[in-house]
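Below is how a single chain appears once it has passed through the pipeline. First comes the sequence as given, then the structure the pipeline wrote out for it. We keep one example in the README because the format questions we get most often are answered faster by looking than by reading.
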Amino acid sequence: MATVIVNNDSNVQVANGSSNMSLRNAMAITNIVTAYPDKMPDDFKLVFHNDLRYMKRDKSFSENCYCGLIPYFNGKEHLEFAMLQWDLLTDDIATFDAKGEFVAFVTPNDELHTFSRSTASADTTVKDWMEGVANHFNNVADYKFTKLDYMCKYEERLYTKSLLGIIKK
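Resulting structure:
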């Protein structure tokens, strides 16, 4: 999940602006999977945005805006679960064991990430592709949330990369 800012002209919103954003994302994903273990919220939908900025490692935000999907449920958009285009296309995540030794490259295999990768094409716009992904998951009765955890490494520091996934019931 990316830390994002929604760049509306009159109302700027920020999610996960703390230095502890990875832990907050992992906890938020755990909370949503626990709250909805067998089904998605009745009003769930993925909302397309073309005005998202991501937080860089130095805690500043990107200059450019990017496309992404933000989950909407319980009457509001949840920026903490925002997925930019590269979040949906992620594959070959380098994973490590507790000693920091490389284990394997892993590709998320939940329905959300698999469908997103399989429908991405140079023949369609990012907007059309993302709206297609969002529309695919409109029937909330067929799906539920899942949490995907990967042990990763940045320089010498190990961390858990957590992704919010969607799977068929």
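Helices lie at 21-35, 85-89, 111-119, 126-136.

See the next section for the split statistics.
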